[in-house]
Write a structure and sequence with these properties.
Helix content: 40-55%
Number of domains: 3
Distance between the termini: 36 Å
CATH architecture of the largest domain: Alpha-Beta Complex
Largest sheet: 8 strands, mixed
CATH topology of the largest domain: 2-enoyl-CoA Hydratase, Chain A, domain 1
Radius of gyration: 28 Å
Length: 708
């Protein structure tokens, strides 16, 4: 049975797409061939005056091109052939000579949106699953089936660049406001409205679309204005990507070329850039990251027979501080949970509830949720100083101070007031879950849920399991984490877990280099040039120096001298230098960006000049992290290299275009990494001694992945 079917009623054809056996519609070579055949009939049949394009999938219009075909590309010529085929299809839709209406319900992304842009009119359902966007730059490529040409002409240059250069996805309501769609309707009448629009278009009616007023005329549609927009966009892209991601600049050039020289020339430019990018190293790494995160979204978190996850509807959070209020806000906004906050004073609880609700309101103001959703969810949040509401909790998350006795006390108390199947989770970043679980009666229902700060923004959740954690508890925590919109990795209960364990040697080494006289600016710039969003010194300020100090002590106690923390951090915290949250750390923070505080060098007893070669600065920082990642995986802290790499990318900002620390080891070459570590050991000490597993892999010519 084919993917497409065609039915004609009163001169209007209904072209229905339903790729058999697949959860979503994608456009493969076979589907394109079917499209071509049906478009031939639409064009030649005189009885057909117009058509609608609609999907039979419950939550998907067209998710884009078949990524399997994309991954199989090996040469520039193969990529050029593939992209030209996509362009020919959208060009057929444009030049058919009869109006086609896109009836959009569910995901309309990438090539799917480009097909919709090639239609005469777009009607979308107001369903939350209806999302429209061009996410190609996130895979290291560009929209190349006309997206860089038709989107700016439809919605204006500035709005189009915002979507294309950032790989943005819009809810249907936002798409309507921007002019990306023409009508927004209830899903039940989507087909009816689309058919009516097609008939009107066939009768000569033409929609009136806004032109953006004076700003649109001056900036979007005049050559001098466009030049200003392109100049600003180019500076912004270079600043944001650091030159590591070529796709946004290529997309910018394709848009600019098309507006200067016409759509045909623009399509040629799109195709040429796509062909180069598709077989490039950056795209290959980003595609692997995409596959890995997609797989994690379906991973139940347990091996073997998967138990049924407990539905988490009612959540209680103990500790209404910064992290507790953020967790509560995310649970309400994303999982639509009924959340009860508890703390020792009503003032603290009131501030926390207000903070969580303001975060929810911010989502409404940005168009991420509707007014109805905002009004519904704001009342799901409540709080107090007693245990009211805890009796019906499916999950309790403690987010109190990082102190073992305090955490044991609140978890034991929570267990006394909750039901027999309630899960107790700790949001600790340093304390082993097993030590907290030693204080409860049901250790099999104790688990770690390590959120990263700020919890409403950071996409990673570490679910930490002990030897006693029941599989159904793990599966339930993983499922709830995904309901929060997080990517979840399951981590064994080892000191530092995964992210903090591999982060600590990196931060410690940065502290040593600082004491050896390397300027703070040099350290941070070296690692942002490597691809991190911020450098190690700035990151310590973001985390909080008190938190770094406490975590360093735990890891030093567990792993010995190779995790010895930086001398001087304790003096920093004693002087109230906690980082950004206190207004000063290594940097001083006023309005805007932080500025290096020169007093730090004296506090840290740093050398006045550095004798460390510049290449060694980067090598010491990078290999300290890579070496520990190899050790941690060998210790089975995470279940796979995939989980470890995604954890590092999402939890600590490891550059996605490098694929993660373990994939980066493969790229560098295990043998090369061992040699580099041995050289660093000879010059700087035993903390750089290559992990045993790396030496073994080098001797056997092994690697972490086979799909490089």
């Amino acid at each position: 049975m084919g993917a497409l079917s065609l039915a004609v009623v009163d001169g209007v054809a209904r072209l229905t797409l339903d790729v058999s056996g697949e959860p979503v519609n994608t456009v493969s070579r076979a589907v394109r061939a079917e499209f071509e055949a049906h478009l031939d009939r639409l064009q030649s049949d005189a009885e057909i005056r117009a058509a609608i394009l609609i999907s039979r999938k419950p939550e998907n219009f067209i998710a884009g091109a078949d990524i399997g075909e994309f991954v199989a590309l090996r040469t520039r010529d193969e990529a050029l052939t593939l992209v030209r085929a996509g362009q020919l299809l959208t060009e057929r839709l444009v030049s058919l000579g009869k109006p086609i209406v896109a009836a959009i319900h569910g995901a309309c992304l990438g090539g799917g949106l480009e097909a919709a842009l090639a239609c005469s009119y777009r009607v979308a359902s107001e369903h939350p699953k209806t999302m429209l966007g061009l996410p190609e730059v996130r895979l290291g490529i560009i929209p190349a089936a006309g997206g860089c040409q038709r989107l700016p002409r439809l919605i204006g240059l500035r709005s189009a660049l915002d979507i294309i250069l950032n790989g943005k996805t819009l809810r249907a309501e936002q798409a309507l406001k921007q002019g990306l769609i023409d009508e927004l309707v209830h899903p039940s009448i989507l087909e009816e409205v689309a058919l009516q629009a097609a008939a009107r278009l066939a009768d000569g009616w033409r929609p009136k679309r806004p032109r953006g007023g004076i700003p649109g005329l001056l900036l979007d549609r005049s050559h001098p204005g466009q030049a200003v927009v392109f100049s600003r966009a180019r500076r912004s892209v270079i600043k944001k990507t650091g030159g590591h991601y070529p796709a946004p600049l290529a997309a910018l050039e394709a848009v600019e070329h098309g507006l200067k020289y016409g759509i045909t020339a623009g399509l040629d430019c799109e195709a040429a850039h796509f062909a180069e990018l598709a077989v490039g190293e950056v795209s290959k790494q980003l595609v692997q990251v995409f596959f890995a995160t997609s797989a994690l979204k379906k991973d139940p978190g347990v091996e073997g027979k998967v138990p049924e996850a407990k539905a988490v509807v009612n959540v209680a959070v103990i500790g209404a501080g910064f992290m507790g209020s953020a967790i509560a806000g995310v649970a309400v906004a994303e999982a639509k949970s009924d959340v009860r906050l508890r703390d020792t004073t009503l003032d603290v609880v009131a501030r926390s509830v207000a903070t969580a609700r303001s975060s929810l309101e911010s989502r409404y103001q940005r168009g991420q949720i509707t007014k109805h959703e905002f009004d519904q969810r704001r009342y799901l949040l409540s709080g107090g100083t007693d245990w009211a509401g805890f009796g019906r909790a499916d999950l309790v998350i403690e987010a109190v101070f990082e102190d073992l006795e305090v955490k044991q006390k609140v978890c034991r108390a929570a267990e006394d007031v909750t039901g027999s199947e309630c899960i107790i989770a700790s949001n600790t970043s340093t304390i082993p879950i097993g030590r907290i679980a030693a204080a409860v009666r049901r250790p099999q229902q104790m688990i770690g849920m390590h959120f990263f700060s700020p919890a409403e923004q950071m996409p990673l959740l570490e679910v930490i399991v002990t030897d006693k954690t029941a599989p159904w508890v793990t599966a339930s925590a993983v499922a709830f984490g995904r309901a929060l919109g997080k990517t979840v990795i399951v981590v064994q209960d080892r000191p530092g877990f995964w992210v903090n364990r591999i982060l600590a040697p990196y931060l410690n080494e940065a502290g040593r280099l600082l004491k050896e006289g390397v300027p703070i600016e040099t350290l941070d710039e070296t690692m942002t040039e490597f691809g991190f969003p911020v450098g190690p010194i700035a990151l310590m300020d973001e985390i909080g120096l008190d938190v770094v100090l406490k975590a360093s002590a735990v890891l030093h106690d567990a792993y010995g001298d190779r995790m010895r923390p930086t001398d001087g951090l304790e003096l920093m915290t004693e002087q109230g230098r906690m980082g950004r949250k206190s207004g000063r750390g290594f940097y001083s923070y006023g309005k805007g960006r932080g500025k290096v505080d020169r007093a730090v060098y004296e506090i840290m007893s740093a050398a006045h000049e550095s004798s460390v070669p510049h290449d060694d600065i980067r090598s010491r920082l990078v290999y300290a992290m890579l070496n520990e990642a190899a050790r941690a995986l060998d210790d089975e802290v995470v279940r796979s290299a995939r989980d470890g790499d995604i954890g590092a990318i999402l939890g600590m900002g490891f550059p996605p275009f490098r694929g993660g620390p373990l994939r980066h080891l493969d790229t560098v070459g295990i043998a090369t990494a061992v040699t580099a570590l041995e050289e660093l050991t000879a010059r700087y000490g035993s903390r750089f001694a290559p992990a045993h597993i790396l030496k073994k892999m080098s001797a056997n010519s092994e690697r972490y992945y086979t799909n490089l």
